[in-house]
């Protein structure tokens, strides 16, 4: 029986010729990742179990992004714990304030993850790197501690759902709308334990940023991973970032899928997830009149340069509506610098936004834009659970950078067409 | 962990890790402190009513969202002896096994146990007994591989033994 892309990568990393869905395997890892929230728990576990060596100091990434720059004394202590650990084991890829970016934007940008690799991260959005044709998935801190110690992890080989993409996205519609549309269609547990494999002629019309955004939210459908095939666009992205040789895995023609969905990209409209689950989606023409208090554009989902460009294009020459706070967070220092160089930061500030240093910050209700009771936010982030960005009765509406920018200008949830 | 017995505290579908332990409390790894905020955004009364041994019962996709291991840690440290759900999100499932929070998948129990029912569990057989309603339900057993991790005291202990 044929294998899916994911199964082929897992087989290769388990040293097996083939694997089947449901099989339990032990796989070698190319990269293991933790942040300032999950890292300290991993370090406690690692040290508590008496390990005194890491498997490979060049294959461990520690990124201080969630509550950094430190929001309070406790957060500072957590970063300090990670810093001390990184120093003790001479970890190559320790990213502290000044160099850090949001982990899932930073690792691809730095070439630390690439096609054909197997990656675990103690952060659920580790599934992002499937955009480059890698197997990557989120785990907890104990699994991560085991990964730091041994360079291995156990997996149940997943079955897969295939999304056959055709056509091309309309103007102002992006990867975010594709993945919100899919989550709305299959539900927040629609891909539970399974791979989401994105294939078909429509793939070539999607940028790397679109693909990173789509794979990023595979977890929001319960997926184990999301993955795209490697093409010219992927190779072009990896050029200059990835020095090492990499492997490209393609699904077999006779690979089995639990389900196949055909999606015509040209039919997808701007999509918004209403509170309090990502699958509670409506297209922009169905949202009605919803006044907002805040907009956040950033995060590991939508904090990349193309996201900044899209938002700046919509805000240029306009001003944020009175009473709306607009917070722009470029995901990495490079995105920040490029946004300055390209004039996006000027545009944002002139429009009445603030532009922040990279941080996960408000996405998970950490800092830099917490919501008060009853407040509403349109965010390009990935979760709109109860209390996610602040008070338990505040509301988060998930949307693309285009919709978020247009909403900031209009003062209510709006599509970019209407704001013109 | 042979048996558990306690009062059921019931929730619905898609209980996410943000409501199990809101991220604003993730600036600590202290188990007791995490437990003191467990479930507060959907059930402010949980921390006051939960008694040692109580059993959390929920619907589908329990523990969806973030990979934070603080979530099963907070539940365990609050005194809950077992979580029964129709299905679990995959990262939460792994995390619970890794930190030693007993979990059982059982759609029938998830549906029929009501808030406040007295429930007992035999982990070896996976049998769940609803004392209040005099019913029994059968949970899906763990795969042998996972039973071994549990029997050897969690993932890190089992890795250390293999070395």
Q: Calculate Rg of chain A over CA atoms.
A: 20 Å
End-to-end separation of chain A: 53 Å
Strand order across the biggest sheet of chain A?
Answer: 4-3-2-5-6
Radius of gyration of chain B: 15 Å
Strand tally of chain A, please? 18
Q: What sequence of helices (H) and strands (E) makes up the elements of chain B? A: EHHHEHEHEHEEEHH
State the assembly state of the protein chains.
heterodimer
Structural class of chain A: alpha/beta
**Which strand order does the major sheet of chain B show?**
4-3-2-1-5-6-7
Q: Characterize the overall form of chain A.
A: globular
Account of the 3D structure:
Chain A has a five-stranded parallel sheet with strand order 4-3-2-5-6, covered by helices on one side. Chain A has 14 helices and 18 strands. By secondary structure, chain A is of the alpha/beta class. Chain B is 33% helix and 20% strand. Chain B has a seven-stranded mixed sheet. Chain B starts with a strand and ends with a helix. The chains are: A alpha/beta (420), B alpha/beta (163). The interface between A and B is large, with 53 and 41 residues.
